[in-house]
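User: Predict the structure for this protein chain, please.
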Amino acid sequence: MGGVDEVFYLRNLRSRKLYLSDDIDECIIDSIVRHILQYNADDKDIPVEERKPILLYVSSNGGSIDPGFELVDVILESKTPVYTINLGYQYSMGFLIGLAGHKRYASKTAKFLMHDGTNFVVNSGAKAQDQMEFNKRIEQRIKEYVLSRSKITSDEYDSKLRVEWYLFADEAKEKGFCDYIIGEDCSLDDIV
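Assistant: Here is the predicted structure, written as structure tokens:
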């Protein structure tokens, strides 16, 4: 990073704007988590309702579930509000991160994807069975999380889980996956 990019990066950090626009892995998530934790530390003596929100722009194809849920947990526990913003697409783990926002925004043509993800099991027979059993427990927790952050029912979740469930912003708002559509419910000024 150099020159102009570095100036914008530093300006964005001061403005509490974070960007997740890559595949989700430990390196990408670590930086975002550190910033959210630091903003919370900076705000420690400020009443929650007076804290300046953190804006997290998420446009991602998804990625690894373990670091993804590290970020989800930090967002959910953040006393400083974290607003997630979908200006393009939130797929797979990106979708699950977007759900965590205290307020969730999307552009009119933003896209969302919920699905059961990808899983690889490479191990001995017994260990592979153990891993598959644990994966079932993970899937159950993901289901509980999605249901708690949306308007969909358990039956609807089950019917959509094994397919590639794509939605546009208006459909996502109807299902409770986002709260505001930019240009309809709010203006661009609200998320910049």
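The two ends are 22 Å apart (CA to CA).
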